[in-house]
Amino acid sequence: MLLQPERMRAYAERVADLIGEERYAEAAREATNLSHARVAEILMEDAPRRAVVPFLERWGRDRAALTLAELPDEFAAELVAEADRERATDWLAGMPTDVAADIVAELDGDTAEPLLADLPAASRASVQRLSRYEEDSAGAWMSPYFVAVPLDKSVGEVIEALRAAPHRHANTAYVYVVDEQQRLVGVVSLRELMLSPATLPVRRLMKRDILVARTGDNAAEAADRTYTRGLKMLPVVTEADALVGVLTMEDALELLSEQLADELSGIGATSREESFFTPPWRAIQLRLPWMAANVFLNLAAVSIISAFEATLAQVAILAAFLPMITDMGGNVGIQALSVSIRSIALGEVRLRDYWQAVRKELAIGVVNGLALGALFGVIAYAMEANALLGGIAGAALAVNVLVAGVVGGTIPFFIRRIGLDPAMLTGPILTTVTDITGVSIYLGLASLVLAGLVA
Amino acid sequence: MLLQPERMRAYAERVADLIGEERYAEAAREATNLSHARVAEILMEDAPRRAVVPFLERWGRDRAALTLAELPDEFAAELVAEADRERATDWLAGMPTDVAADIVAELDGDTAEPLLADLPAASRASVQRLSRYEEDSAGAWMSPYFVAVPLDKSVGEVIEALRAAPHRHANTAYVYVVDEQQRLVGVVSLRELMLSPATLPVRRLMKRDILVARTGDNAAEAADRTYTRGLKMLPVVTEADALVGVLTMEDALELLSEQLADELSGIGATSREESFFTPPWRAIQLRLPWMAANVFLNLAAVSIISAFEATLAQVAILAAFLPMITDMGGNVGIQALSVSIRSIALGEVRLRDYWQAVRKELAIGVVNGLALGALFGVIAYAMEANALLGGIAGAALAVNVLVAGVVGGTIPFFIRRIGLDPAMLTGPILTTVTDITGVSIYLGLASLVLAGLVA
């Protein structure tokens, strides 16, 4: 039977409805047709919050554990903390220990200690070992499930080892070959094993040049290597070359998604560290300094306007269009900024092509500036019945749109060319530049033709 | 030999240097130690643009073809158009036909026609077949390389078929089983094949419940299924269930990255369609309508300020702080917006938790509002030596920061809860709301205490 999207969706909806109606036993029966990831999605998106733990409690230890493993760590930790202690220990023991380590890391110490103490000794040791690696390292992200065989085995013996290995270990694309010190010395693919005679020594079959990551390497970089090489998994070794884990393609996908989101966060002046689950006091610490810096950046525009106080005193209505001019500049600039940051983050564009970016934004800016300036000029004239004011407002907006597009579209190229990442202040700096140009041109022009405006 | 990052980087740097010095033959020799993806990266990031085609021409037909296949389609198309016709045809013929189809789609008709005509008949047919699928469909993204065997084979015969299959086809994690009409009826993993007796009929081994995508299905949704199920590849079938291709985990990663970037683009009022390579005239069409809409959104703030013309005429310096108040509101709002859009896009947060988002942003907003308001109030007082003006400006900023944070942080939840995607206008609508609240409070307070300000 081919499982098409419609069929899977029908199952999922039925499960979600049953959970909502607190008919947990029936929900569990239907849910066996769904993957753990899909059940996790239902718990995230559709199930009422209060029904999540009761459903998991009735869903069997192993299934509940594997479903929890598919949830975001923070949410899984909440659920583990809510369940009773025995159940929570069962769940942690039933999931891959690398995931258990991530979830335990999200719990506060008082909740985590007793749960860890109750874990079977082997799981506890593995969780504790994995918790020792630094947060963004390959060691912290690796899975401890792989198949390694000694150098002196034959192909037939390796196949026997695969047969005997627990399923979680054996669900692999490669078998690694290690020496007596557990040092990684070779790798063979399942395909090569399958196509080779059983008596062939594995040392004659194995590939000896192996791309690896060290436990201390940056996990996102290791993920990038896994992906660009098209590997199904990347072995992770200690400084002494001992094989201790693997980074899978799924890990790579998760890591690269986070990295992409980080690179795009430059648009919104957001710290890479902040997520929805960051506690408010920490979010304040992360956001406040940038916004305080922004206050000082904005003083430039304030000073310029202050310098034109005399003009404003004579033609107060000039003030009405100030926010329009600065706001449009900011929005147009951030629009162009987004396109560039996105293309750079997705690796679509050569950083050397920034002159092309300048030319493109110039062309767009001239047309959009003229169009928006004309629109705004007409509106300003209509509102105030003052053609000169309309003309000045339109002209200032036109120039500001052009400047904002060019600056916004090219900033990320320059920042990356000098080796930095577009950072939290990119957006605020951009709006400062557009505020200054917009306000200067607008009030400057107004002062030049002041006599005409007052008349 | 373990290939650690440092070693690979040293190779890459040497290759980049040699290409830069136009020593193409030596560069090609060194580059054989690198993956095609890594060489592609060097051509994107490090090589001078003029050196790219000459290097590829000296690098051998197949290697050049597979390196081009790793480049973004737009850049690869540029290079193909630059090379002479014979070479370009060789390259297209040497790469996977699904990639060739993507590159041909980026070429203009006059360049593409003769190249297609020169392709070997089989490649041309495959490219043309793949080009017929809609842009974002699973059909357009699928790879035509997989191994399928008839129902009546034994395990031993399937292994023989794998041995005989061309490498590009056989580099697979699964073997598919099809009936006489090429309809997909089963799947076996390499591991199951390896662990089973050679005489076992494959129909007794195969799994019959198979997750599939239809050629017309949305490719990003299919990718999401591939990833959440932890599949190494997802079979793609026609309406008649005939197996025509597979979506690999690498395809899934690329698709999900683009989707994530799309979801985050709501922050910058950017169309999902626009990339660096969008021609200016098209970018204008995409951006102008939204910015014109933004002009009208901004009229709300303009009207409010106009209503306070009398107040402004008496205390012109009030105008100096208008852009500061609106700009801070916009930046704080977009900061909170980014955090929420990011957490939603990464699937970290339950959409049902928006009350939690409101509470969090309220807490942050009260503290940040008070802090930034106080800072700004002191600065305004220092600049104008007017305590009342400083107080008003600070109070308006404080309230505006609070409102901006709460609105920005919660908008994406409400939009997603009613089933929409955060769209291009999210940012502009947010800044409109913050402009209106900021300006009203600021000028409203100023009017109330006008006598004190004039004095």
Automatic annotation (TrEMBL), chains A, B:
Subcellular location: Cell membrane; Membrane
Superkingdom of this protein's organism: Bacteria
Entry keyword Lyase: no
A family per Pfam: CBS
Chain segments annotated as coiled-coil in the UniProt record: none
Membrane-spanning parts: 362-382, 388-415, 436-454
Cited function: Acts as a magnesium transporter.
Keyword set, alphabetical order: CBS domain, Cell membrane, Magnesium, Membrane, Metal-binding, Transmembrane, Transmembrane helix, Transport
Family membership noted in the UniProt record: Belongs to the SLC41A transporter family.
GO molecular function: magnesium ion transmembrane transporter activity; metal ion binding
Subunit structure and binding partners: Homodimer.
Cited InterPro entries: CBS_dom, CBS_dom_sf, Mg_transptr_MgtE_intracell_dom, MgtE_N_sf, MgtE_transporter, SLC41_membr_dom, SLC41_membr_dom_sf
PROSITE patterns: CBS (PS51371)
UniProt keyword Cytoplasm, yes or no: no
One GO location term (cellular component): plasma membrane
Protein name: Magnesium transporter MgtE
Residue ranges annotated for the CBS domain, each copy included: 142-205, 206-263
Membrane topology type: Multi-pass membrane protein
